[in-house]
User: Which sequence fits this backbone?
């Protein structure tokens, strides 16, 4: 086999491998999202969070939105997505609970296409994981969307997290 043919074979294998790995990432994200249930669960106890976040040195109560994840990042029309919000809370008293407002919006080309508001999300001491889901309409236009989640704890600045996702009819092995 000549040098040019060998390079062509190697380039083809690399390109094919990238396509397979890209498909695997989408499938992995779909599997992770499908394994999650709506609701919340504690990740770190209040005592550990108190130490980690140096709560004694902060104005209390203190809330930190630590992350937001959106899976899968690529959906078919009619597909379901999971978004996971992780927050930590340092209470003024050990069992204090805060009522926060959460505003969720889905944007397409900068315009809000869907939204909802939860006026009473209970923020609890410790580090908590909150899983929520949404389903895209089957007739939604293909393209890049954003999920914007704004958490408004009482007497604290609002915290906003934004994640993008793609609505596409090009899928590798599954349809969700």
Assistant:
């Amino acid at each position: 086999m000549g040098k040019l043919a060998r390079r062509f074979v190697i380039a083809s294998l690399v390109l094919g491998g990238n396509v397979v790995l890209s498909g695997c990432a989408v499938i992995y994200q779909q599997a992770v999202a499908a394994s999650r249930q709506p609701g919340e669960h504690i990740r770190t106890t209040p005592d550990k969070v108190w130490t980690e976040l140096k709560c004694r040195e902060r104005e209390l109560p203190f809330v930190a939105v630590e992350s937001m994840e959106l899976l899968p990042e690529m959906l078919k029309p009619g597909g379901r997505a999971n978004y996971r919000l992780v927050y930590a809370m340092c209470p003024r008293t050990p069992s204090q609970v805060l009522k926060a407002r959460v505003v969720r919006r889905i944007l397409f080309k900068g315009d809000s296409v869907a939204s909802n508001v939860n006026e009473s999300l209970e923020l609890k001491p410790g580090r908590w994981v909150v899983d929520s889901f949404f389903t895209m309409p089957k007739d939604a236009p293909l393209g890049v969307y954003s999920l914007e989640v704004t958490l408004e704890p009482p007497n604290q600045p609002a915290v906003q997290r934004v994640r993008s996702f793609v609505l596409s009819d090009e899928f590798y092995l599954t349809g969700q």
In short: The radius of gyration is 21 Å. Confidence is low (pLDDT under 50) at residues 11-22. The CA atoms of residues 89 and 113 lie 31 Å apart. Helices lie at 3-35, 46-52.
